Amino acid sequence: MRSPTRQIILRTLKKQGKCTVKTLAEAAGISPVSVRHHLASLQAENLLIVEETREGVGRPFHQYSLSENGVELFPRRYYRLTNRIIDEIKESMPEDTVRNLFSSIGSSLVEKHAARLSGLPFYERLQELVKLLTGEGFEAEFEIRGDEILIRELSCPYYRVGQSHPEICLIDEKFIAESLNVPVERVSCVLDGDNICTYSVHMTPQVEIELQMEES
Question: Cα separation of 99 and 170, whole Å?
Fold first, then answer.
């Protein structure tokens, strides 16, 4: 748990948008030197953005604001709205249509990132896919184990919504399968009580040949 002073700093940044050290020191009731110590710790947690600003001919100064990670610390109601929208969709559409809808979102992600994936050898495409998954909030990694590739997602940006609508897992499953153009099987899932989500990619003979060529 963060200290009360850091909570004040975060709330002040959330309320005011951008603040100087002086403003934050006044809000927290501490010295600027102490504020800088707290800001350094919050920066190390990737919760802040720092911008250098210059006004007139004076010396430049720093302004602080919340990063995307910092904003996510505060309660938000978007998942309630998302749940309501999905509830309405599921009430008005057959189950297969709903599943196809989530799968199509995964396909659209492949189209969105086609330029980064197109033409890459399999191993490089796998590496790029993991970067893309991490950029989407999954904190992904992979391991080649014999004739199997395990893609692990250490976090899930869909977890809150997925608790009510597990079909949402079809998004990243489809994204992985179409990006690599190979069959994919989900072998663990946080929604089932597992620590992480894991997808198993069973290598086709062509993929094995590509990997052997890249290793040679």
Answer: 7
Fold match between 4-71 and 78-215?
no
**pTM of the entire structure?**
0.66
Structure confidence by residue, pLDDT tens digits, 83-113: 999 999 999 999 999 999 999 999 999 999 9
Cα–Cα distance, 19 to 35 (Å, whole number):
12
Which DSSP symbol is given to 195?
S
CATH 3.30.1380.20 is held by the domain 78-215: yes
Pick the CATH number of 4-71 from 3.40.50.620, 2.60.40.10, 1.10.10.10, 3.40.5.10: 1.10.10.10
**What end-to-end distance do the CA atoms of the chain give, in Å?**
50
> Domain ranges in the chain?
4-71, 78-215
